[in-house]
Amino acid sequence: MNNSRKTQAWISLMIWVVIIAAIIAAPAVLPVFRLNLLGRYLSLAIVALGVDLIWGFTGLLSLGQGIFFALGGYCAAMYLQLNSAFEFPNGIPEFFGLYGVEKLPFFWEPFNSPIFALIAIWLIPSLVAGVLGFLVFRNRIKGVYFSILTQASLLVFFNLFNGQQKLINGTNGLKTDVTLLFGQMVGSDVVQRWFFWISAVLVIFAWLFSKWIVRDRFGNILIAIRDDEARVRFTGYNPTIFKTIIFAIAGGLAGISGALYTVQSGIVSPQFMTVPFSIEMVIWVAVGGRGTLLGAILGAVVINYAKSLVSEALPASWMFIQGGLFILVVTALPEGVLGWIQRGGIRNLLVKVGFSRNIATYPKLEIADREDMKV
Amino acid sequence: MQLIIESLFNGVAIGSVLLVAALGLAIVFGLMGVINLAHGELMMLGAYSTYVTQLLFKQIPMLKPFYDIYVIVAIGIAFIVSGVVGILLERSIIKRLYGSPLETLLATWGVSLILQQFVRSVPLAYGSGVVVALLIALSSPLLLPDDLLAGTKGKFIKAGTWFLSAIAGITTGGILSSLVSKLGRASARNVDVTAPSWMRGGIEVFGTTFPKTRLLIILITLISVVLVSIFLSKSSWGIRIRAVTQNRSMSDCLGISTETVDVLTFGIGSGLAGVAGVAVSLLGSVGPNVGGSYIVGCFMVVVLGGVGNLLGTIIASLSIGVMTDLIGAGRLLTIWPTMPSPLASTIDFFATTSMARVMIFALIVIFLQFRPAGLFPQKGRMVES
Can you give the pTM of this predicted structure? Predict the structure, then answer.
């Protein structure tokens, strides 16, 4: 046990050294296009952390994280649009002119303030998540029902944003790459390089934050809810509160992630709220290893990078690969890649092919050991 | 009065598509606790089988005289196609995942992606060939005598049937692609199913016109619901399915083969998705994404109607249909034109199909605050979890 803890610590330390070295080296090595892609995927890692917190630790499979992701993106885009609106007629963003709107809708007003925008990016998504979560969890709706409801609410938000041309430019979305920030074009190389650094730093902060959340009693209760919610309730805890809080936190993380992704991809649109994208978030976590925070980050970055490489080479095959990945991970590798390694997967594999000798242990102790690490 | 009838008819028409689609989903969900995210894609397969059937009846000289009844043949074919694919899905993937519904959810999503891309990149002729091959391979163990399949010899015979069915599939694909030119090429474009002449136009009753296609869809739904309810309540396998739905382990103890029940249920549920696909193909053009636009409505029906209850599914889908029409077409405004203006503008805001969905979802969430387990919750003393 002690030994395996040590190896685990070593493994994660090594992964971290590699990650940080890669992040530091990336801007020097990669062309701006690739760097921008990497920055986007790092920001997606933040939403993956949120998914891991609610699914990997608490057992709530949300298929609607795209809502909070897009809300964060919209908050950032609205501020940027207003920030560079002075050159257009009426001093409001350009697209309003297309629909004959002359006065700024009331909910745009507060986004004139950068401080409000910075707070709104995480607060609005987490409030929406909190309210939605509370209404659902209060009734002890869980499992598959919860997943369907989140997916349905995702579609509802999609329809809501998609149809409102006059309020938020509907299906065209809000562009950010031609807006100004500190007098610089957001789409310019300099600003994009800065956003890469911000994403990298925020991923690490989000990781530390998630680590802090799951570290002690609060985290234990989350895991207990995942493993046996009825027993948690009988022990005197109210699972609703814990589920609502963690769902709101995941929503906030999704908001931050969405804002970073928006400024780096240059546009936010209702496409962020399509069903496939939200389910993809789950698969990043599933492949990386649910219940392992590092796995979520690695899953998000590696799969997305692979996706962009594969889609450039063979556009049609990505759907097959992705579909196969879903099935494979669920049936063959339920703990994900990192979980499999942490569970001694490599050693077991070596034993199976005959390269390494099985270590003699007391099977019973081994089982007890596994049980408390079970994810 | 006329307005109310028209509105009700439209609502029932919308609801009946939902009903036949949600019926299969609800049966499978009730029995196995599995939400099949590939259900929409099974509908899509049903819609494409309608298209293929139509082309066959149009272009093969032997079948040409019977063109008028191709829709009825298509219903059967769609049921078989979707049912076979559903059974394959159950046997190969879902079987391994019982007891972990969330994992099943993800796996079926993977399947739905693969099915979508399959339709895009494989010509329909060879797609039909694959279905034929699967049909032969999956049904051969039932047709061959048991003692032939036992032991080592049986393994070879099984492998042989798979080999033969693969050949049969390829041959079918080849024949179809040479006979019907449109089936030979893969295309991601949407296709259109044209209704035979007797189904076009409408029937006029009391000054209101009812489109015949809609009436046919309502009829199809009615027949499927009646057949399913007779099957579930009267036939011995139907009773077994209900027993397993109520208590799986006890049914197992009493000698019901739960494995057979699972296959049967999944086959029927998926087949109903295929029938729904026929209805969908009559309403609009058919593309690889056609299932996605209906699937969420089906989820809402299942959530609202509760698990394992046919009546709940029927009431839920019809009321969602009527509500969609009421809100989406802004009918309240036409019925009550002198409504106070703030209310009128709110209703006007929601008077599109997509905004009607927003409103209905909000209403369902509010409803669930009072009845968390749907319209007809299952009674029992179990602590659910």
Answer: 0.83
